[in-house]
Write a structure and sequence with these properties.
31% of the residues lie in helices and 27% in strands. The chain contains 20 helices and 28 strands. Strand 16 and strand 17 form a beta hairpin. 41% of the residues are buried. The protein is globular. It folds into three domains: 140 residues, ATPase, nucleotide binding domain (Nucleotidyltransferase, domain 5, 2-Layer Sandwich), CATH 3.30.420.40; 212 residues, Nucleotidyltransferase, domain 5, CATH 3.30.420.40; 206 residues, no CATH class. The two termini are 18 Å apart. Helix 1 packs across helix 3, helix 6 crosses helix 15 and helix 15 runs antiparallel to helix 20. With 598 residues, the protein is of the alpha/beta class.
Length: 598
Amino acid sequence: MKILVLNCGSSSLKVGVFEIAEKSTEIFKATYEKFEAGCCSYKITQGAAVETGQAPLGDIGAALVALPQILDGHHVTKLDAIGHRIVHGGEKFRTTAILDESTIAAIEALTPLAPLHNPANLLAVRIAKEVWPSLSQVAVFDTSFHSTNPPRATTYAVPKAWRDAGLRRFGFHGTSHKYVAIRAAEEIGVPLRELKIVSVHLGNGASVCAVNRGESIDTSMGMTPLEGLVMGTRSGDVDPGLFGFLSRQHGLSITEVEEALYSQSGLKGLTGSSDMRDVEDRAGKGDTEAQLAIELFAYRARKYIGAYAAAMGGLDAVVFTGGIGENSPSMRRRICDGLEFMGLRLDHDRNQFVELANHAAPQIQAYGARVRVIVTETAEQLMIARETAAALAPKATVPEPIPVAVSARHVHLSRPAVEALFGPGYHLTPATPLRQPGQWAARERITLEGPKGCLERVAILGPERPRTQIEVSRTDGFALGIDAPVRDSGKLDGTPTVRLIGPVASLNTDGLIVAARHIHTNPDDARRLGLADGMLVDVHIGDEERGLVFGKTLIRVSDNALTEMHIDTDEANAADIRVSGEGSLVSDLRAVAMANRD
């Protein structure tokens, strides 16, 4: 599939054409900027050939209208679809969206959240629909990768009326963070769902993202792209009380303060220049303002890396990208120095000489360091093309119902745990067979104890496992007073400790999780349903009007399994299921398979 990608800003236009197949290839790339006096600067890259110059195009609209002729002149024809970068998707757009009139109107309604970005993005959409009326067009949102952020990361502690009006954190640079996390996992050679990554996008706009086992769980930008790190012209984190102070003391309006925070702050506010290269040059010549700006920029980034490592309960890799992240060895070192306590140490020679051609992702940590440090070019255009192709791929709707079972709190005990709780040589008594072959509920029960309270008569499921695992709901976690992470079964490293109380003794053990929803199935059913082990799918449960879609449901294929989806009691309550129910697969299986492979 040949995808045209349009990334339209307020003062520049970036264009890419990609052939999306088993191996994705960029076949055309162009940038148009510095529009003035009826002309603009342009740079076109096609293979090894690079063309630069001036074009008689007075504004972005003129460049968009001229694109068909430009593409034809470079022998780029027979486009299949167009993908558009849209900065803000709000709460409505949690994934890609086909651009029809209702979708465009909904995006336009989000303009107050991104007044500098969404109008420019929509300009490209409207002109592209006129220029290529027969092509499907898709919106890919900067915010959508962060739709997995939990409420504790997205909620501002402000009055309810404000929150009801839509005040919350969204996050941006999502396509960049998603791409570099996937690329880092490829470089490390470990599935993304097994890694804890901090993605550090440093450029004129800058943000940090915690990618925990393939999902964004927090990011430094908030309701707008103003929150977080120090940027080229944006302040990053400030005390919101400055609005009142500047109004009272200096008579500044809200609009004036907001404009200054967006365009007169950051590196520019500290030094007069928004270009880190210039700031670094001046710092080296003794400019104290430039030196402070560099220290502040690095300090803020280092704080976020440490905070996100804590939020994820560990760290496997830090990935630098963006113009500064890719090109400034000194800034990478400033940010990483002092993080040795986390197992992160740079190799200074590797850091100094980084080669990024052909989507390389070199590792620059010291040999033997526990945490990897990776540098790679971001590829937002490529990611938009992939997401566009996935959105237009045939959707698989499987009418065959999937049985849904409610999995109440329970434990899987190891042999040492059984003997510790019930006595040496004790063996559990199978009482009730479960639907999955070879599995059963034991007659025995135990108590779970946390700092806040106890959960009594908790079921034990057999047979015994090599490692004890305790599965509770999120509500159970609050009852215990312990923050249990959402994990796939068996992924227990770094999980919290809980006390198990048996008739003979008690045992403190890790392994407390909220089990990620999943579907057990066997190879025959998996083939019939178009599923594969490790795939993530969406499942619709309930009626058409009030039913829920449970996203990112893990497929677990084993030889003797019966096809059945397991959800916990909180999820069951949300779907109005008491004991069991039915669901249906509604995922774009091709897209999910591609994402899982990446």
